[in-house]
Amino acid sequence: MTELTTCNWPSKDPLMTRYHDEEWGVPLHDDQKLFEFMLLDAFQAGLSWKTVLRKRENFRRAFDGFDAAAVAGYGEQDYERLLADPGIIRNRSKIRGAIVNAKCFLEVQQEFGTFDRYIWQFTGGVTIKNNCRNPGDIPVTSKESDAMSRDLKGRGFKFVGSTICYAFMQAAGMVNDHMVTCHRYGG
Fold it and tell me: Is the pTM of this model over 0.90?
């Protein structure tokens, strides 16, 4: 049996490999999943994706299955509950930001009909396919993530710098940064 060629960042970690093979770079158009990735990418700021991914199910439980309407309705009691939850990343600013972002997310849905319609405008509705041959070729920002960051900030979103937006774009399949030699690059 021949082993598939893959990007090097998942290493041999089964959780990271499954995420790489099944989710990362796959075009995503489901609003609830888009909210999930937005929330998780904000919590990733300053941390490794592996740290966040290992806590993903705890985040799902703590944040009502990534239901934006539920999170938007969180009050001080919910904030305190999240701050005391050892299963998630307990950063005061990121927790407050998640609640603010949920409210902003619902406003965008109201304005555009879906968050999907809004967010994909930054890539013209298509996946940008990069031709990365080495890990160092993968950008951390782009003109599209810069534009997305500016617009999201203008709408009141928190933890949406260009680097976080670019990571979100990778996760949501808005950009394909698989190595050209990776079995996932073509599809």
Answer: yes
